[in-house]
Each structure stands twice: as C-alpha cells, then as structure tokens.
Automatic annotation (TrEMBL):
<feature type="binding site">
    <location>
        <position position="322"/>
    </location>
    <ligand>
        <name>Zn(2+) 1</name>
    </ligand>
</feature>
<dbReference type="InterPro" id="IPR002195">
    <property type="entry name" value="Dihydroorotase_CS"/>
</dbReference>
<feature type="binding site">
    <location>
        <begin position="79"/>
        <end position="81"/>
    </location>
    <ligand>
        <name>substrate</name>
    </ligand>
</feature>
<protein>
    <recommendedName>
        <fullName>Dihydroorotase</fullName>
        <ecNumber>3.5.2.3</ecNumber>
    </recommendedName>
</protein>
<keyword id="KW-0665">Pyrimidine biosynthesis</keyword>
<dbReference type="InterPro" id="IPR032466">
    <property type="entry name" value="Metal_Hydrolase"/>
</dbReference>
<feature type="binding site">
    <location>
        <position position="111"/>
    </location>
    <ligand>
        <name>substrate</name>
    </ligand>
</feature>
<feature type="binding site">
    <location>
        <position position="169"/>
    </location>
    <ligand>
        <name>Zn(2+) 2</name>
    </ligand>
</feature>
<dbReference type="InterPro" id="IPR024403">
    <property type="entry name" value="DHOase_cat"/>
</dbReference>
<dbReference type="InterPro" id="IPR050138">
    <property type="entry name" value="DHOase/Allantoinase_Hydrolase"/>
</dbReference>
<dbReference type="Pfam" id="PF12890">
    <property type="entry name" value="DHOase"/>
</dbReference>
<feature type="binding site">
    <location>
        <position position="249"/>
    </location>
    <ligand>
        <name>Zn(2+) 2</name>
    </ligand>
</feature>
<feature type="binding site">
    <location>
        <position position="295"/>
    </location>
    <ligand>
        <name>substrate</name>
    </ligand>
</feature>
<dbReference type="GO" id="GO:0005737">
    <property type="term" value="C:cytoplasm"/>
</dbReference>
<dbReference type="InterPro" id="IPR004722">
    <property type="entry name" value="DHOase"/>
</dbReference>
<keyword id="KW-0862">Zinc</keyword>
<keyword id="KW-0479">Metal-binding</keyword>
Length: 451
C-alpha cells in the first residue's frame, strides 16, 4: 500500500472545468498572476494566459475574474467523531464542512467511541469513508490502547492497514518511558507521532488560560507551562531516539521557543498552530461564551504574537484547525462544565485572511503555504497547481464578506468561535482529488457548459 492509498473517499466523477481569468497563487510553483486553468478528467491539463484557453466539449466554464485560485488546503488535525459520536459530526458532514472551507484532504483523530486503536476499527472507518467522504480522508489511530497510556497499540499492523501515523490527541502520553517505547516502534514501522502536549498535573481542572482574566472571572486556569514543559520533554526524547514527532496546536511562547531550540539542535520535530490561537486571546472568554472554550486555551496577546512570529520564521510548520464539533446541548451549559473545542474548517482561511492578511501582518502567499503543507508532515503529496497534477484547487473571492453562521454550517455542529463575525474571503469552489467537492450557490449563475 502506497502512502497515497492511505487517503480514501467516496467515488465521484472527474471534473472537466475551465476556470478563466483567476488570480492563480501557488508559492511552490512560483505562480502569482492572472491565468486560465483547464481541468480535464480530474487533472490540470493546461495553464495559460488569461483569455488564451477554450473549454473543450463537455467542459464547464467558470468565471474566475476578480477571484483567486489556490492549491486546496490540507488539515492534518480534525475530529470527525466517527465511530460513536455521530450526533456531533460524521464522515459526510465533516468532509462537506472541509470542502466548504477549501480543503481537499483532512486527517481524523482517534478520540472516538470506541477509540480508534485496532485494525478492525480502522478498516471499518476506511470502508465508511469509501461510502461517505466527500474529500480524501486519512486516519491516525491511537498510540496507546484506549488512549490510556498503558500499552502500545499494534502500530505495525495499523500502518499496514492505512494508518498515517499515531496520536493520543485529546490526551498526552504522560509517561516518558511509554513515549520512548513508541518512538522506538515508530522508527521500525514508519509514520509520525502527533502529540497533544499537556501535563494534567499542571492543567488540572482548568477551563481557560491562567492569568488576569481567569482571576477576574473566578475560573480555574491552565498555565502555559502545562504545555511547554511536555513540548520540551518530548523534543528531548525524540532527539535521543532519532524519532519523528509532530506537536499539535501550539498556544504558548515557551512552546514556540522550545520547538525553535529543538529544530536548531537537529530534532525531527514539526508543529502546528490553529486559526483561533493565531487570531484570538483569553480576552474573548470574558463573554463566557462556551464556543471560546478549547484545549489548549486561548492565551495572551504575547502568546499570540509568538505564534505569528513562529509562522513567519518557519518554526511553526503549518496551520491546522483542530476542528472539534460538539452538539448544541453539550455547549449550552455553564462555562466550566462545557466540553473543550471549536469547529474551524469552514472559517480557517477567512479568519486568518481577515485578521492577519488584510491588516498586513502576514503575506497571503505564506498563509496559502501554511494551509497546504500539512499533508507533507505525514508524507503525503502537497497540492500543486501544475500541468499533469491531480486537481486539488480552491477558488476564493477575497472581497466577499460573510457572517459566520448566518446561513448555518455545512458541519453538523455550530460551536464555532467565530460565530457572528463578519469575515472576508468566501470559498466558491473546491476541487478535491480531481472532483468537485464544493460549489457555492453564487457560482451557478455565472457558469456555463460548452457542448
């Protein structure tokens, strides 16, 4: 089984479309200008100057004038809640949500019911994705059985059945000895260990960042050292064992510093930051809106600035959503009682574009690069806009403003921390693995088919 086979989706017809006059931006292919792009049989067949290409018979023409065409995004960290938590999300709704956000690939976490920790569960998930997934999905089973930290899963067997890597996401690997053993097995079977970094003895029953806001609200806090101390420990263990680790959802200055030092020392470590940690701080929790409750929590402005600096200097490798859907009744409780997590697939690009690109904090090309590179951290191909490549593209209207949640969500859940915000940048079309996975209703009226 090749690594590309580790991604599965439901069958879908190959796209035949001509996108005309769009501003094509692909930093890896040095594309940054207005072009026509022809997708034929699901592959990028031609890239030409604006107005130079004609649609073949049977191909649909889509007016891209005034819009941007990017490589579609890849998210290495989402929760699709299958099996056992389908009241929150499932493969159909989760991948529909991803496609609506411009994503062509997502990787699902194992904190399901039961935990994805055996080949039988993994096989059932892959079979379900072959029926229901709108875009390609990969799966990362647990590092330890039941995510209990006591016994390693059958990592080699899981890899042979399609596991992209391993993670106990939602829980840390508390035992240093267990992590060391996992890294030793990982060197033999391949894949990466993705780590949720949190010391429960420090985070305790905290519900938000430990600081002046938590003190004023009277809510138990989670100190940043609960994350950063495990980041430093696990980088040291990975360096000693020569293993590969990926640190999930960084939130703190100290964590960024630890990653930067580990990379300088030659440790095989990558990491991610989430849109909510890049754009919001613990000040947002003053509303006591449970959609602002996530783990790790929103931290200080200084922490946010450190994450942005980490993106700029390459310390932070990618932007990942940690899309964590919950049912409405689960979030409509007092703040301390609500589960951690926010949805994010439909708002990831727009939130970062609105809050960081439009003000000039980040370059658009850098954001596109960080949103598309996530798969490469798991040895998956990076989407590219080049002739001969399978089409993974998303067409975005950067000038289009929209209110988050105003017309509902493609996701089954609505616990989005950006709910009610007016954002710029609407995804109009997503082509994933050569097939149209999402089309905004506004696109239909300007499209035509050549016959």
């Amino acid at each position: 089984m090749s690594l590309i086979d580790h991604l599965v989706r439901a069958p879908a017809p190959a796209a035949d479309i001509l996108i005309t006059g769009a501003h094509v931006l692909d930093p890896r292919e040095s594309l940054d200008g207005v072009h026509d792009v022809l997708v034929r049989g699901g592959q990028i067949a031609r890239i030409g100057d604006a107005g130079s290409l004609e649609a073949p018979d049977g191909a649909e023409t889509i007016d891209g004038a005034g819009r941007h065409l990017f490589p579609a995004f890849v998210d290495p960290h989402v929760h699709l809640r299958v099996p056992g938590q389908e009241h929150k999300e499932d493969l159909a709704t989760g991948t529909r949500s991803a496609a609506a956000g411009g994503y062509c690939t997502v990787v699902a976490m194992p904190n399901t019911t039961p935990v994805t920790d055996s080949t039988s569960i993994l096989r059932s998930l892959r079979d379900a994705a072959l029926r229901d997934a709108r875009i390609p999905v990969g799966f990362m089973p647990a590092i330890t059985v039941g995510m209990m930290g006591k016994e390693l899963t059958e990592m080699a067997e899981l890899r042979a059945q399609g596991a992209l890597g391993f993670t106990d996401d939602g829980k840390p690997v508390q035992s240093a000895g267990m992590l060391r053993k996992a890294l030793q097995y990982q060197r033999l079977c391949g894949g990466v260990l993705a780590l949720h970094e949190e010391d429960p003895s420090l985070s305790g029953a905290g519900a938000m960042h430990e600081g002046e806001v938590s003190a004023q609200l009277g809510i138990a806090g989670i100190p940043s050292i609960s994350e950063s101390t495990l980041v430093a420990r696990d980088c040291a263990i990975a360096g000693y064992e020569g293993g590969r680790v990926h640190m999930q959802h960084l939130s703190a200055i100290e964590s960024v510093d630890a990653i930067r030092a580990a990379k300088a020392a030659g440790v095989q470590v990558t990491c991610e930051a989430s849109p909510h940690h890049l754009t919001l701080t613990h000040e947002a929790v003053r509303t006591m809106d449970t959609r602002m409750k996530m783990n790790p929590p929103l931290r200080t402005e200084a922490d946010r600035q450190a994450l942005i600096a980490g993106l700029k200097d390459g310390t932070i490798d990618c932007i990942a959503t940690d899309h964590a859907p919950h049912a409405r009744d689960e979030k409509e409780v007092p703040f301390e009682q609500a589960p951690m997590g926010t949805t994010g697939l439909e708002t990831a690009f727009a939130s970062v574009y609105t809050d960081l690109v439009l003000p000039g904090v980040l370059d658009l090309a850098l954001v596109v690069e960080k949103l598309t590179v996530g798969g490469s951290l798991l040895d998956l191909p990076v989407p590219r806009i080049k002739v001969g490549a399978q089409a993974h593209v998303t067409l975005v209207d950067l000038d289009s403003e929209w209110v988050v949640g105003e017309h509902g969500y493609a996701s089954r859940s609505e616990n989005c921390c950006f709910a009610g915000r007016t954002l710029s940048g609407r995804v109009l079309l997503t082509v994933a693995a050569g097939s149209i996975a999402h089309r905004d209703t506004s696109l239909t009226a300007t499209s035509e088919v050549t016959v």
